[in-house]
Amino acid sequence: MEKEIIAAIMASTSDIDMMTNDRIEALTKGHGMLNVAAICAANSIAQEVLRGTEIKLTDHNVQHLPIDDVLKKAIESAEVAGADPANAALISAALCYFAGTNAQAGVPAGNRKLGAMARIIAGVDRCGVIAIPTAKVNNRISGYAAVKALYDDVFENKITKIDGSIVPLGVGGGPLYGHGTLGEDIAFPEIARNGAAAGTKGMLKAYANVGMPPSPITAAIFGAAAILEIVHPDSEIGEKYGEFFKDNSAYVAGLGAVEAAGLPEKLHIRGTGEEYDTAHLVGDLGVILKDIGGPSVIGMMAFEEMLSAFEESLEIGAGFSGGPLQPPLGHMTADAVLAMKVLISSAGDLEVAAEKIREIKEKFWIEPELAKVATNTISRKAEQVKRGPVTKAMILATDGGLAKAVSERAKFTFDKLKEGKELDEIVHMLDDEKLNNVETACSALFSGMMGKKIDIKITNYQGCGRRRPNDFLKRYCGFDTDATVEVTVDGEKIVFDGLSQKVIPDAVVNKKRDILEAIPLAAVPVVELQLCGHTIINIIVPAAVAAAMNTKASPREIARKAVAGAYISSAIPGGIPRAEEVSKRAIKIMAEL
């Protein structure tokens, strides 16, 4: 291999922050997103479980259980990565649940609930479902929507046939009610199921009415959590609702929420196929959420991204880090859940966990190569805060993909520069290839989903779609993208001219159902391009090669020229200083070769 290529590869990968335009140093202290905090907490939990620590909740007559220590360490790990105590509590409780901890256990004396334990250990106050926000998806709502809808039905007497005002003295509040027919067979199941359905419907309506695509899974969890603040949250239930000592009122709340949200009965962890009963999942997460304290929007974003570890994440409206789009690095949490679960199930086998992650990247992403590089980047960044088996598995899964992606671009650039091509021209060629890969992958994806022959071509992609032209938007077209997309379905061509500024607002505002149904065919490939600031190897690697080949240009000039050619990869600012730094490193490395 030519020494210029070696120098470029080393320079491009020597500082992980140079691989992305996302501000990942800020992520290590929780500015904007908390996925690094979640990854660090997953490292901590996996370490504890793999050394044999018992993480189950019990009602044992003791002051402390081993899970108390596991939670404490996970919360501290999340806090080191910038999570405030309330967010650290939510992240740690949810990850412990996915690691195998039950959401609740016990009788009144000795009763333990995972969310409440995490909240108490973190030292935060309880705020109630009404004050908990959803994740941000352009906008956000809060649990108020679930609580209001629930209480509207309470006041309209739609929740249960039981009139508490006539319950006799000696019955209400005691075992004749709570452990008898009136409670377990009638009141508790009715309240749980009907109340959860009401809260879920309220969330779905609120989502839609503030211009947000509803998240069925989040709506269901909030709906369950809202009613579990009212109904006995861990009561036994009549046999027609479930099994004794296995199913409880939280499960029935889950049933009502799942039905109201239209969720599938079963969910499956991506890549492993591990099956979850959706009603149990929703009920358990509702129990956690109602007790957790006051997480912020970014805490809820990390929580929702964990749910994208399910294969059905698109169907249930759970996060972005499960594919097929590659999101900004601050979203990426699903890999940590998967790695933690596979490590636990395989007794800590890093090779098994790594291979599962690698397979998932190959199978579920539009651009598998860049999905691997993105995972490698955020994993290495998280290791700067806290190392552990989860990040080790994620890095092991993606090192090969990183090496291939960088070396191929270095070799391509070297050859083209030798042929006399200009640097900006070479970068433009790499972005052309990216565009073609996205078009091809999306065509195949939608053809498979719809059972039709679909061909997608992006014929125009530039900045300044609707704003007054300026240099910033021309250079960074992720902010005001002017895209034209041609979609051919079984030979019939549809042209989306001005997708963002014309087609989408017209179809949404005027409720043009036929256009709305077709828009995803154009939107998905365009969004994949808009988000590509997460990985800028099309910019930094060619810049490093050019610097290593002793061009007369300065590192700053090389960087500017590389970014000038990156009409796709330079979707957001940051490429110039990173390419300049990599160019300087390539020159220094060449001096030693």
Descriptors for this entry?
593 residues, mainly alpha, 25 helices, globular
Overview of the molecule:
This protein is mostly helical. Helices cover 58% and strands 6% of the residues. It contains 25 helices and seven strands. The strands form three sheets. It has a three-stranded antiparallel sheet with strand order 5-6-7. It has a two-stranded antiparallel sheet with strand order 1-2. A hairpin with a 6-residue loop joins strand 3 and strand 4 (275-277). The radius of gyration is 26 Å and the shape is globular. The mean pLDDT is 95.
Tell me briefly what this model is.
The chain is mainly alpha-helical and 593 residues long. Helix content is 58%, strand content 6%.
List strands and helices in order, with pairings.
Elements: H1 3-13, H2 24-27, H3 35-50, H4 66-80, H5 85-99, E1 104-105, E2 112-113, H6 114-122, H7 144-155, H8 175-178, H9 181-209, H10 216-228, H11 249-261, E3 266-268, E4 275-277, H12 278-291, H13 297-307, H14 313-316, H15 334-345, H16 350-364, H17 368-383, H18 389-418, H19 423-450, E5 454-462, H20 471-475, E6 482-489, E7 492-497, H21 499-509, H22 513-530, H23 537-548, H24 555-565, H25 575-590
Antiparallel strand pairs: 1-2, 3-4, 5-6, 6-7
Helix pairs in contact: 1-18, 1-23, 1-25, 3-4, 3-5, 3-15, 3-17, 4-5, 4-6, 5-6, 5-13, 6-12, 7-9, 9-10, 9-11, 10-11, 10-12, 11-12, 15-16, 15-18, 16-17, 16-18, 17-18, 18-19, 18-23, 19-22, 19-23, 19-24, 21-22, 23-24, 23-25, 24-25
